[in-house]
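In this supplementary section we document a worked example of the pipeline. Step one takes a protein sequence of length 199 as its only input; no multiple sequence alignment statistics are reported here. Step two produces a three-dimensional model, which step three serialises into structure tokens for compact storage. The input and output of this example are shown verbatim.
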Amino acid sequence: MNILLIFFELFITFFKIGLFTIGGGYAMIPLIQQEIIDHGWMTLAELIDIIAISEMTPGPFAVNAATFVGIKTTGLAGGLFATLGVTFPSFVIVVLVARYFTHFQNHPIVQSVLYGLRPAVIGLIASSAFLIGKAAFLNASVDFGSLFADLGRFFTETVDWKAILIFGAVIFGKYKFNIHPVLLIVISAALGVVLYGLL
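The serialised model returned by step three reads:
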């Protein structure tokens, strides 16, 4: 495929993600998943890795994710096009909102729209949590319709108990001892090395 066409696709795809994502970075994960996997730019496992890296690195999640996907697809130039695509709608919308929102923020229609968007944002974030949790805690794709037919095999072969142990340790450390999030990331990385690399 022509490299310019790929650049254009990256820009348009992330422009669409940036334009139609309401509710921040977590709410855009389902749309990112749909677009990136449909284009064949990366697998679900690779996307989950990108999400984890984007959360750990400085800067907004959306910008980090777009940059990483673009770089993986076509190098540094691809990262630039994807980043420009995802940030351009936000830039335009923020400029317009900053200029005009105070004039109509209390209008009944605007308030109704905002009330309607709240549950949608929560649903998108919940969908993101389910997607990431399924990929992180299960070793294989699961047909939830036939899950109860073989619960024994599910708990012994499908569930990733090492990931659940790390998750539990992070939750316990945060809420029991109020460990700083940066230290929790370091501890999680160390546990990953021990549990997945050495055992």
